[in-house]
Hints:
Number of strands: 4
Largest sheet: 4 strands, antiparallel
Oligomer: single chain
Number of helices: 5
Amino acid sequence: MKILRGLMLGRLSAFTVDDAGKETFVTGGALDRIQKSVELERLAFYLDSDICPWSIEKQWEDLLPSDWSQIFELAGNHSYSEKVAENHCYVLQPVTGNARYTKLRTEKSRNMGQPLQKAIINLEDVTLCLSEDGYKDILRLADNFAAFNKRLKYAHYRPHAPISVDPRSWWKYAYTVVTDESEKARYWRLSATKHVHGCILIM
């Protein structure tokens, strides 16, 4: 089963503004008061199962810059990327919003009795959802990560040759892993037994 995870971001921009909220460029004493405006468009996270999101006639290495734009840019109501975006199984539905950040110098903030830093964030509807298939995919993904981490611990013992070529080394590898796991399990059992015995003596 293929599990596709993706983070989408239409646009993220930040720029300096004046008291009226208009973009500006400040230097010198104007730096006593820093004001930033942030704009966010179409931030989303999706989790898809068993789908092929891109139907492309060319090979990836043969795509032109214009082809990449058509596939991935979320511009235009009838673009290919818009049609693909509609079919995603979103955990976080596309969110758009803006923010305003203000920072004063310490001395000025103390004299004016205002907070040193202030941020105002406005977001449109924020929708979080997880389908039953998405929940199962997350559990399956967690199991895969757990199995990968377990294999990674013994990766330096893993033979380089295929098992059909050198079965002896694979038997040695299996024996090493099982022995190591058994010794660790026995150590933890002994430690737990000593701990319980110590608690009984204290009581």
